[in-house]
Structures
1.
Amino acid sequence: MTATHKSTPAEDGFRMPGEFEPHSGCWMAWPERPDNWRLGAKPAQEAYAAVAVAIAASEPVTMAVSDGQFENCRALLPPEVRVVEVSTDDAWIRDHGPTFLLDGEGGRRGVDWRFNAWGGRNSGLYFPWDRDERVAAKVLEVEGAGRYRAPIVLEGGAIHVDGEGTVLTTEECLLNPNRNPELSKEQIERVLLDYLGAEKVVWLGAGVFEDETDGHVDNLACFARPGVVLLTWTEDEEDPQHAISRDARERLEAATDARGRGFEVVLLPSPGPLLISAEEAEGVDAAEGTQPRRAGDRMAASYVNFYLGHSRVVYPLLDPRHDEEAAGILRRAFPEREVVGVPAREVLLGGGNVHCITQQVPQG
Ligand code: KQY
């Protein structure tokens, strides 16, 4: 059994590395719930399999799956993807999985954040979420990594780090009363710094328009490397996303990171707007207490929601009008990596994208 540490990662010399640092693997979790994924999750399973295959060319991939889906999942994935039985309530390992940390001496541990399905009983996306709540501890057990149980509700998609002391997050999500209503902004910052081994939090305002996670930063902006941030962007001033992205850009351009550097902001075009079709909405089972999928609703589509793999960037193909432009920007941002697109509308229909369904394991 791996240890649960009572100290904080910062006290023990651990930090969350940037996603651009070397990886030894990637975790995903298999989709199956028919009240979030249309047509019994079949199209989503195909999309997840394509993401797993694309990442497996960069680093070993492990898929967490329920007992009931084990054989189906095994049959749909190539042998190089490891499949292990870990029950979940849905398939967002960025959010219910651990945040891995390194200590610079070969040590690897992980943070197990509290999870309340993006908002708890009143505004969360489903109930119950007890299986999700146990995922991080199980993944850490499989990885043989020690665990820190964090004292706040947080999903991994709500943070990005540059690995050199800077945390990027949004007020819309982390200051939302549906996460940690008893804590002030300063108290939340303190926990972030202590549990990510960081020194400075840079706050953006809102996340992507209509994002059901309450504005996860991983759909809005991310670090390409220290000092360089990719930001989703639209020139269309009529689009509510324009004001959100402009505010984020202004905050980034006015900020400095933990090392005192200013940020270079690289703009990625927003796909769409992309709306749920009638056929897509009809394919999702109705269920009490889950996020409804209605025809005509806008989805929170963003190319920023990519996986920054060891040797590959795996990005979502979302809109033929912008997919190639996004790929070109990513190739310039990551010249040493191969940039590969995977069809991702089926993942988007479930409420997130490639980054939300993956969790990197940094090289210890
Ligand atoms: O990180 C994410 N984008 C997760 C979204 C959860 C959606 C649940 N329907």
2.
Amino acid sequence: MPSDEFIVTPWHVEGEIDYDKLIKQFGTEKITPDVLKKIEKTTGETHFMLRRGVFFSHRELVRILDDYQKGKKFFLYTGRGPSGHTHIGHLVPWVFTKWLQEKFDTNLYFQLTDDEKFYAKQDLTLEQTSKFAYENALDFIALGFKPEKTKIIINTKNIKTLYPIAAQVAKKINFSNTKAVFGFTGETNIGMIFYTSLQSAPCFIEDRPVLIPLGVDQDPHFRVTRDVAPKIGREKPALIHNIMIPSLSGPGGKMSASEESGTIYTTDSPEMIKKKINKYAFSGGQATVEDHRKIGGNPDIDVSYQYLRIFFEPDDKKLKTIYDDYKSGKMLTGELKAILIEKVTEFLVAHQQRREKAKDQIEKFLYQDQ
Ligand code: TRP
């Protein structure tokens, strides 16, 4: 694949993504300074992930905000395909979703698609994806959502609720349609072909508008859902998209849960965090200290810096100092990595304690079919 090309689909991300191009390709809207102002006016503040373009694109977010200001409430929906253990990249949209839930005081549904990952991955059994669904749910709960307002839907467990909605949706999607959107072929199993209707179902679980924070790779599913919505007499889901989180070993592809070395899992020990970052984190530094002092580093391609920007350093002033010092050569790669190691360790040690407690809370979060 030529270096200026990229692919973004729900099951495959490749190449270095040009997000402005992707907005055009997908037909979404950029989050402009005006949209940011509107969010700030409604919530009283902006989140650093918005200010820094980690959430960069949307569909009809403005309608949701306008309606909200007029007193029409919405609910939130996001999800996770349990194909492996949770890594720090997964937490990005969840942490942002938590902020939205607090600011707008909304209900939230979190879908775990154990069926999807069983269909999509040759080597995974349904038992394995169900086990990962449970493990992923612990990480989600550990972030501190309120059980009264937050429900976890597991596809194979909550099918009684999902199926009647999915059936409404499925009837309005034809095979040519999904083939065109997802590139399915004659060899694709029919579970995959039906699957979009199940990912659509939680959009219509409450009789009010929905806002979905999600990785931009998931947009194609909801493009389909948005086409279907008026045909079943419902409002189109609104979306807010985050960028793909780079793997430790470098840009060009999202952090994949199946690629051990390039991935920091939420259950990694301080020793593992340190080892992985020191050994694998792609560096924007120069080959020698001498050159680095002279030429400076490149924070824009340095993964340690990017992790601080995307997640681990919410303080804009501190982040800017790191950026400037690294770029000027004052800060060395080892020093930058040490900052990240400290931040990740501090976060994960606390997260792991909350994750243990989540084992006793999970029942309260699981959606109960009526
Ligand atoms: N298909 C998603 C994944 O593989 C999981 C998912 C289900 C999801 N519903 C969602 C993601 C809603 C974002 C929003 O990760």
